[in-house]
Amino acid sequence: MSDLEKCMEHLIVIFHRYTVDGDGKSLGKKQLKKLLEHELPTFLKSQKNPHLVDCIMKDLDLNKDDRLDFEEFLPLVAGLSMACEKCYVTKEKKTKQ
Question: Residue range 26-51: average pLDDT?
Answer without folding.
Answer: 93
